[in-house]
Amino acid sequence: MRKNIYKVITALSASAVVLVGFTVSGSSFGVEKPMAGITLSLDKYCDGVIADAEKEEQEALAEEKKAEAETVETATEERGDVQLTKTASSTTIEKTDKKADADEVQEDTSHLKLNLNYSRLGVANVKSYLNVRKNPSENSKIVGKMTKNSGCHIYKVKKGWAKIVSGKVRGWVKSEFLLKDEAAEKRAKKVATLRATVNTETLNVRALPTTDSRVYDQISADEEYTIGNRNITKAWLERYMAKYTKRKDLKGVTKSEMYKDLDNWVMLKIDEEKVFVSKDFIKVTYNLNRAVSIKEEKLKKGSDDSSSSSNYSMVDYAMQFLGNRYVWGGTSLTNGTDCSGFTMRIYEHFGYSIPRTSSAQAAYTRSVSSSEVQVGDLFFYGSGSVSHVAMYIGNGQIIHASNARDGIKISSAYYRQPLKIGRVK
């Protein structure tokens, strides 16, 4: 029996704005145009559940039936999120005691359901990350990584290994590093957060909550974004503008009209930057992190390029720090670093001296096109000027020290529009 995912989204207005993407000289921007009577469906499913996976789960549940007092139902997936149902009860999120940032609004989330109904929940109980392997063996290929407090569904536990699915990743993890059942539920209630996913391929985000404001950046459907405030009020926005808004952000903006439409906007946090996006084109969920798929790129057979080999070693080294802390101004890979401190230390380990800040690193590197990108190259992001940097690890992914909530993480290289791709050598 399949259950629908918990949905939170505002209905489209008659003057909704839709994004059309195009690419010019290696940079992608969006064109917005008004369209009336648009209806967006939130029931866009991914490729569906693989038949043999369903069969395996049924077998696993049958084995556990004698030990469990509850009836469980089969797993389904929606847009890569695991959707499993527990018939006896549903989990709700308790209001946390975590202090909100000055520019965020602390919400009472006790009425919200965790967007992960499950038959058996597992939560990664590690300091940094947990490898997901193709088979239950430490010698088996790594197919993904679960960072601290990532959630998964446990199919079965066998000889110290747990067969799991988390997002789009299926495989095996060491069972001892997973919280299970009630312990997992308790942890999930504490760490789940409000996230936004984009319902279009790409979407413009704004410096202020109005389409009259300048386009700050462009985000994609390949990433989940942290919500800073989804209940924007006039009083809150006035305080926000006094603290953060630059004169150029107010150009062309009629404040009285902007204030009338605040219910249709949310504030997102991208890395450590704050932007606004229309509710019309996002889906809001309350959930856990999920595993990230890892596909290792290998040198071509017979290659003796020592420089390329060094780049792959650099990526392997950087991956060791996945899940570690983000600290603004920090340069410690173990105790906390910011984005440029992270890339500086990775390169330093391999004998390269690069500047300290992301903008200086961008100036120091030579530009390469997206078609020429290699592992170890640096991706630079920002609005007009560089404010964030990440390192390319292959297969369309980057590793970066993102923000205080997520720490060092893996993202799509185009989770936001890069200003430059740079190569140190």
Short description:
With 425 residues, this protein is α+β, with helices and mostly antiparallel strands. The protein is built from seven helices and 27 strands.
Task: Give an account of the 3D structure.
The protein has 425 residues and is an alpha+beta fold. The chain folds into three domains: 17-41 and 196-286, SH3 type barrels; 51-104 and 111-194, SH3 Domains (SH3 type barrels, Roll), CATH 2.30.30; 307-423, endopeptidase fold (from Nostoc punctiforme) (Alpha-Beta Complex), CATH 3.90.1720. 17% of the residues lie in helices and 34% in strands. It is built from seven helices and 27 strands. The protein has helices spanning 51-64, 181-191, 234-244, 255-260, 306-319, 339-349, 358-364, and strands at 17-24, 27-34, 76-78, 81-83, 121-124, 129-133, 142-147, 151-158, 161-166, 169-174, 178-180, 193-198, 202-206, 215-220, 225-229, 265-270, 273-278, 282-287, 292-293, 331-332, 336-337, 366-367, 378-383, 385-394, 397-403, 407-412, 418-423. A six-stranded antiparallel β-sheet has the order 22-27-23-24-25-26. A five-stranded antiparallel β-sheet has the order 10-9-8-5-11. A hairpin with a 2-residue loop joins β9 (161-166) and β10 (169-174). The longest helix has 14 residues, at 51-64. It is globular and about 65 Å long. The protein starts with 16 loop residues before the first strand and ends with a strand. 39% of the residues are buried.
